[in-house]
Structure formats: structure tokens, C-alpha cells
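--- STAGE predict ---
source: upstream dedup step, 1 unique chain passed
mode: sequence only
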Amino acid sequence: MRKLLNKLLIKFGLLITKAPTLLADKSLPTSDSLPVELTEKVKIVGATEAPQNELFDIFSADTNVHKWHHYFDIYSRHFERYRDRPIRMLEIGVFRGGSLRMWKDYFHPDSTIVGIDIDKSCSAHELADQNVFVRIGSQADPNFLSEVTGEFGPFDIILDDGSHKTHHQIISFGALFKSALKDGGCYMVEDVHTNYWIKHVDSPETFIDVSKQIVDMLHEPYFDRKETHFRHAHDEAVAEMEISYLSANLSGIYFHDSIVVFDKSSRVLPKSELR
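--- STAGE serialize ---
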């Protein structure tokens, strides 16, 4: 009973748990399957050039934005396809408002950009006449997230740049992916390197841990089945199956340095064909 209660408290952001390990001191697990030359230590050096893309140029023109330089190529890779039409974007974390303005300049001028934050002073960064809105509340409050979705959603892009606390990242994803993100949408969680820093880990599992589990869920259709179950016109081919909502609506997961991206798209049964 105690374990069940703790799970419910964690789900709703009411229980803060101690970091399970000192992640900053954690050594990398190494699979015996990897050759030693892939795991031996090598030196890397600092970047000498700034990113060469339009979004970085927009970022550089504002003094109230904090971003890691290597994020900009990742943003461009995943967000470029949304620029040819008005979209709706939700950004968790407003800070000084610079990123809201950056996204407004980057995407179609008729796009709606919504930021949420627990800091009431962030309301000053709303530009309602430009379709840039700010709402005050916690990213760990499913009711608040539902209200924001009802007012502005569903969204084409959801970007979690909020508290970086692991239980916040997990709760927000669970509350938003199904009801707040459009089919064809993109859910991005950035600064997940904080999952390896003690002060940000306040849940039994980090968001990175959960994301690794979702990799398995992506492949759920193949559990306890074989290739002929998917082969075109084969006697063993299945016409339908029941799988989790997440697996049925996830087309891809992308792991980058400090960023995890989920592409939402309604799936059909995989099909194999032997000619």
C-alpha cells in the first residue's frame, strides 16, 4: 500500500524523493558487446565556430535568451518542417521571455506561441497583439495543463524548457502527449543532461530512464510475434492488434546531446512483403 501511495504522490508532484544515486559520480556502464576501441577515452575540444543557421541569427539578436549553442542545429532539424504554415507552440518555461520572441520570429507570422511558468512576473512577456501568450501555473499540475490546452491547443510543438526537475518532465509528458499534442506534432524535452545532476533528480526514475523504456514501447507491435504475422498476404498475417496508446501514436524517438524528441503520428500495422 505504501508503494502505491508513493507512486500516486509522485504522479501528481506531491512527493519529492531523494536521488537514487550520486549521478555526478556515476561511471558509464559498458556493455561487453562493445569493442574496447569504442569505449576508450579520447579528447574533445571546445567549439570555435557559432552555429550557421537562421534560428541562431535570431537568437543572437536578443539579449534575454539562454540556450546552448549545439541546440540550434537540433531545433532546425526537427522544427523546419513547421515553418510554412501557422502553428501553435507551447513552451514550458518563460524565464525572461526571449525564447518566446525567438520562436515568434522563427515560425510563420500567424503562429500562436504560448509560454507557461510558475513565476508571476513572466506575465509581463505576453504580447497578445502578436499572438504570444503567457499563462502562470505549474508544469506538474495536470489540471492547469488541461486548462492551457483547452484555451490554446492542441499544439503542433511542445517544448519542455521548464524546471528540469525529473518528476516535472515526466508529469508534463504524461499529461500533454495524448491530449495536447496534434497528430503530426513534435514533443521536445531539452536540458536532459540535468538528469545526471543530483539537484534535479527528484523521482525514482529520471526522464532519461522513462525515455529508454519508451524505446521498447515503440517496438511493442513485435512483442510475442514473428515476421510472418506482418507479411503481406501470408496465412499468419494479423489484420489488427491492440497496443498502448503511446506505441500506436509514436513514429520516432530521437536522442541528441541533452535533448530527447518524440514525433507523434498515428501508426498502422507494420507490413512485410516477400517478392
